Amino acid sequence: MRKIPVLFENDFCMVLDKPSGLPVQGGKGVKTSLDSILSKEFDPRPLLVHRLDRDTSGLILVAKTKEAAAALSALLGSGGQLMKQYLGVCAGGFREADGVIRLDLDVRGKEKEAETFYRLVKTAACELPDSAFSCSLLELELGTGRMHQLRRHLALIGHPLLGDDKYGDFPLNKRLKTAFALKNLLLHASRLAIPPTPPLFPEGLNVSSPLPGYFTDFLDRIKKKRE
Questions:
Q1: Model confidence at 80, in pLDDT bands (50, 70, 90)?
Q2: Which of 17, 65, 74, 208 is deepest in the core (most CB within 10 A)?
Q3: Would 21 be classed as within a structural domain?
Q4: Is the pLDDT reported for residue 171 higher than 60?
Q5: Is 50 helix (H, G, I), strand (E, B) or coil?
Q6: H or E segment at 91?
Q7: Beta bridge partners of 110
Q8: Residues 62, 49: Cα–Cα separation, whole Å
Q9: Which are the contacts of 224, defined by CB distance < 8 A and separation ≥ 6?
Q10: How many structural domains comprise the chain?
Q11: What is the C-alpha radius of gyration for the chain, rounded to an integer number of angstroms?
Q12: Distance between CA 76 and CA 124 in Å, rounded?
């Protein structure tokens, strides 16, 4: 059974650091999930407050009681009281240093408004064996919480996340796997922040998660390839 790092804990909740490849909930073909691990490691089992994709790594918030879960869920829907920040590497370069993506997304057959904020951290360029290649490291923040929103939004504007096997640039991912051993989706939930909110967080919450090794390894390989 996997041990999930606990980066923050109080009487109401915990912030966990989920590895890439671990589903949050069970389902068809899923033998182990974050939910099943929590049910074995804790009594009573902590309750999920929000979700991360199977292939997205990083911070996830769980509640210790039903009452705490309800209060935390209210923060999620109260005009940005709970800030969730991600780091992602996408294909191509950006002209603007920051911006917002507002594109409706299909949710169960209905078009729903969706909003993603981004800030360019850096752009890198190097040569693949058969072509030139550039990618951008972005800070991403959700304005809304649609399923796979970050992955879908970036793909729709022509900058798919690297390693995305659902919405990504599949030929590019294949070349990157050969050239840089890229096997994972490069999307990481890096920071959770909540302003002072008694009694849950009298002094607020600000938790960060370091990039996983495969993420930093890819960035290092890109850098060495340019030098």
A1: low
A2: 17
A3: yes
A4: yes
A5: coil
A6: strand 83-91
A7: 107
A8: 5
A9: none
A10: 1
A11: 18
A12: 34
For β-strands 57-63 and 187-194, DSSP reports them as: parallel
Between 226 and 24, whose confidence is greater?
24
In tens, the pLDDT along 193-212 reads: 999 999 999 999 999 999 99
Structure tokens at 39: 């049910």
Backbone angles phi, psi at 222, to 5 degrees: -60, -45
Contact between residue 143 and residue 116 where contact means Cβ atoms under 8 Å apart: yes
Q: Report the residue count for the chain.
A: 227
Q: Flag whether 1 is in a domain.
A: no
CATH number, domain of 10, equals 3.30.2350.10
**Domain ranges, residue 183:** 6-226
- Angle at the Cα of 88 from the Cα atoms of 87 and 91, rounded to 5 degrees: 155
Cα separation, 53 vs 129, in Å, equals 32
**179 backbone dihedrals φ, ψ, rounded to 5°:** -80, -35
Which range, of 41-45, 50-54, 146-150, averages the lowest pLDDT?
41-45
Give the pair of three-digit tokens for residue 164.
């995305």
Distance of CA 201 to the CA centre of its chain: 23
Within a domain: 39: yes
Whether residue 202 is preceded by a cis peptide bond, meaning omega within 30 degrees of 0, is: no
Greatest distance between any 2 Cα atoms in the chain: 57
The question of whether 165 is a catalytic residue gets the answer no
Catalytic residue among 17, 35, 53, 217: 53
* pLDDT at position 2: 63
Q: Are 140 and 116 in contact (CB under 8 A)?
A: yes
Q: What is the average pLDDT score of the chain?
A: 92
